[in-house]
Amino acid sequence: MPVQSFVYNSAPQRVVFGAGSLQHLAREIDALGARRALVLCTPEQRAQAERVADMLGAHAAGVFDRAVMHVPIETAREARDVAQRLGADCAVAIGGGSTTGLGKAIALDSGLPILAIPTTYAGSEMTPIYGITEAGMKKTGKDFKVLPRTVIYDPELSMSLPVGMSVTSGINAIAHAAEGLYATDANPIMDLMAQEGIAALGRALPAIRASAEDAGARSDALYGAWLCGTVLGNVGMALHHKLCHTLGGSFNLPHAETHTIVLPHALAYNAAAASGAMARIAKALGASNAAQAVFDLARDNGAPVALRDIGMKESDLDVACAHALQNQYPNPRPLERDAIRALLQNAWEGVRP
Ligand SMILES: NC(=O)c1ccc[n+]([C@@H]2O[C@H](COP(=O)([O-])OP(=O)(O)OC[C@H]3O[C@@H](n4cnc5c(N)ncnc54)[C@H](O)[C@@H]3O)[C@@H](O)[C@H]2O)c1
Fold this sequence. Notes:
Layout: E1 14-17, H1 25-31, E2 37-40, H2 46-56, E3 60-64, H3 73-85, E4 90-95, H4 97-110, E5 114-118, E6 129-134, E7 137-142, E8 150-153, H5 163-181, H6 188-210, H7 215-234, H8 239-251, H9 255-270, H10 275-284, H11 290-300, H12 317-324, H13 337-349
Parallel strand pairs: 1-8, 2-3, 2-4, 4-5, 5-8
Antiparallel strand pairs: 6-7
């Protein structure tokens, strides 16, 4: 097919990738022109953050270990105040999307540069999208101030991510690439990245399931996460991300698991309206049907495939469907109430699409 018209923006961002690349941290802080870094983490990753602070020596302002899911505004304000009190001139976020999200919330108000060290495959480090929760409502927005200036991808740091979380986090990444392939603002560069990212994760996840410390597989998965995160940061998402946002926000379902369960059904919903994207996803996974290939990748690697198994009540499906239809947004297939209700039922039951 000849190349169609497109608009392509490239964001100024530095990526340092490779096993052991954490050793370059001090050099990278210096390259940002910063002198004192506040290290951010969740309570669970305190030990990793302390290792980072030790590596920085006098250039570490301290460790703030209270990152949690959904970035409560109180936590963001507290972290920003701590950064100010300690005289930090940059923040290092080591962890998954929740920790990167806290870094973004600090950057939004203060303009502090963020250096991200991702340890999951969520991809937030490659996007200018932030989310902050105030009075129980998660507000999301887009601002290039929050895009981490530097990202250090060190696959060794993801070895400790439990296999179950690795598989769901990897499929969360695949979701960004899959929807990027049928985005209204898709472009050929993102298509290449999306297909390569899905392929890298498709081969990495079964290998990680076989051995969590398979260095090659951890590298492949993080490389895939980088590519898929870049797609998320560059083009618009559609029905799948809308459904997951609704399900996570309204019913407090876990982020990566929800993406894993919903994706095959969202792809099946859009299949006939986005045949080119489906062909690329299927090819990347070495299969003939994109939706089934994603379902099989999850099921065969021990991930949950039914919303009922992660705490969703069947009686909430009607409300979820109504929320998903509240605002119109671009999607290859028009939003049809009965078909979306059926999609949610299938995802709740865990049927293979
Ligand atoms: N703004 C964006 O562009 C964007 C993109 C993707 C995700 N997100 C957000 O990120 C959040 C989800 O991020 P997530 O899925 O990475 O989970 P997470 O950051 O909430 O991490 C889940 C748990 O895993 C732990 N963990 C992370 N890496 C580990 C490792 N290597 N070893 C052991 N434990 C580890 C964390 O400390 C935490 O306890 C959601 O709130 C989502 O909305 C935002």
